[in-house]
User: Which sequence fits this backbone?
């Protein structure tokens, strides 16, 4: 009889311990997204018309505390933002990094990060984003840099991150 009471107490203790351990603290992060520059890779490629062009792959890490990064697919019925990744181009001119002019052929338009959503109690989103940029016109002297940031669906802006200086003519991976 005592043995049965010990077994019941031991079972209750084990179940209580498992329940306590499985109810871990939910991580929290600020509602504003945060980004970190990872790398920029320059490579040779072809465009959809078969022309030889340079490609660039911007890679960065992001995290968002309320998990609302990314935009839904646009529809005709609802007018939504179409851009949530913003890039500002800089060019190296006489050894100095200066903002590019509005008519610069290398100046990118904005980009769209697709809709992401996480289910469950923990809404935090973390991950890596990779964006491909094509350069149709470039010279051996073209060295560029980008500042970039993202905006979530609640219009919270991330910090601004910067790439390394990127010589477009030379293939390679450029990290800070």
Assistant:
């Amino acid at each position: 009889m005592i043995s049965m009471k010990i077994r019941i107490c031991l079972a209750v203790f084990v179940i209580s311990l498992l329940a306590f351990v499985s109810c871990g603290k939910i991580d929290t992060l600020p509602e504003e997204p945060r980004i970190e520059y990872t790398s920029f890779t320059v490579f040779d490629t072809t465009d959809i018309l078969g022309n030889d062009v340079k490609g660039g792959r911007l890679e960065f890490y992001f995290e968002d505390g309320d998990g609302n990064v990314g935009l839904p697919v646009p529809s005709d019925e609802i007018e939504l933002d179409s851009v949530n990744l913003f890039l500002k181009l800089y060019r190296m001119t006489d050894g100095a990094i200066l903002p590019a002019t509005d008519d610069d052929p290398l100046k990118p338009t904005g980009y769209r990060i697709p809709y992401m959503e996480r289910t469950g109690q923990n809404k935090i989103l973390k991950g890596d984003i990779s964006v491909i940029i094509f350069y149709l016109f470039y010279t051996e002297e073209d060295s560029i840099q980008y500042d970039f940031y993202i905006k979530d669906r609640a219009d919270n802006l991330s910090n601004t991150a910067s790439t390394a200086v990127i010589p477009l003519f030379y293939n390679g991976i450029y990290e800070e």
User: Anything to note?
Assistant: The chain has one domain: 28-174. Residues 63 and 126 are 4 Å apart (CA to CA).
